[in-house]
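Handoff note, outgoing to incoming analyst
You'll be picking up this chain. Sequence as last confirmed:
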Amino acid sequence: MNYYKKEFLDYLLNQKKYSKLTVNSYQRDIDEFIGFLKTKKIERFNQATYQVVRGYLTWLYQKKLARTTINRRISSLRSFYRYLCKQEYIEDNPMVLIETLKTPKRNPDFLYYEEMQQLLDSIDVSTDLGIRNRAMLELMYASGLRCSEVVGLTLKQIDWNQQVLLIHGKGDKDRYVPFHDCAKKWLLKYINEVRNNFCDGSHQYVFVNNRGNQMTNRGLEDVVNRVVYQFDPTRKIHPHMFRHSFATHLLNAGADLRSVQELLGHENLSTTQIYTHVSNEHLKEVYIKNHPRNR
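Most recent structure output, in case you need it:
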């Protein structure tokens, strides 16, 4: 079974151009399924019938996993078995009749502009790490970057004259994203005054930790957690909220959906449309608060 798993993961990485993080998620999901099959003394993927897969899903329910988590497992196995059928390694696909679970629609979490401004202004920039943190979070909000795009950003991807970033996004897709003057100011301050205090110039990654190594996703999460705790210990703000806020604020200000889609690097417009629900709610609040007949 490991042979087919490895071949599928190589296909995702080298042909589909999925990120290593995405491929690792697929690997964990398939490994878990293999572990379940072994408890049923099943040694080959073509022995996993529809009933076996239903038993696996029941096992996931009993573990009290979230519906979104179970749906991700289903999606991973669906892709995997589709690949096995395409390569003619198996004849019957047990995932054909498996449906994803219905989940309640949830609007993305975001900060209002005033909250974002207060959060960024609350960062203590009297230290080198504080200047790095301010530059990093300013850029995240300025350009709507994913965590992996922030930590993977290199110096040569920054065009200072045009004030744009060349971002290597999901699926190995590149896009250009602008950044504003405030982000440029903090980014220049960090690179010119701080970065060399940590980094010996052995690599080109923009954001580094206190040992001079490339910042990791986990390191970025820790930075956001510390900044948020100093700002308001009662708030729960995750790094992706900077991206959510970026998109929501652009739409609230009148940006068209297609442009926001391009800036975010979304392949499908439907992915970007989730932010219109947030914007519509904001418009309703403005209407209720300001319409003269509603006072």
